[in-house]
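## retry 2 of 3
previous attempt timed out at serialization; input unchanged, resubmitting
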Amino acid sequence: MFYFDAMMSEIFQRKVPVRREAKTRYEGHFLIVMTPVTLHLSILNRTASQILGMCDGKRSITEIGQMFAEYFPDVDKKELFRDFVHTLRDLEAAEIISLKGETISEAG
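## retry succeeded, writing output
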């Protein structure tokens, strides 16, 4: 199970990250993302790009966190959690993703 600390609300854990419309292209190991409305340009490293790839509008933050943790089984869970949440918040602040309500399966 993915580590979530007590400070993260259960509501946040159930949020579903959805990719917003953006132009993307790879430059080596980096993903360049430009949002069309704000023309904000972001350069994502491989880890952030992996997290963004899992934001399909169907998986909750908890589900994506568990998948992410499987990629890095030897990394300290608290450190992995901090990096994961920090990346999600950065993606949201850059308007690359938005966080929607509960997952489709829970809402129905």
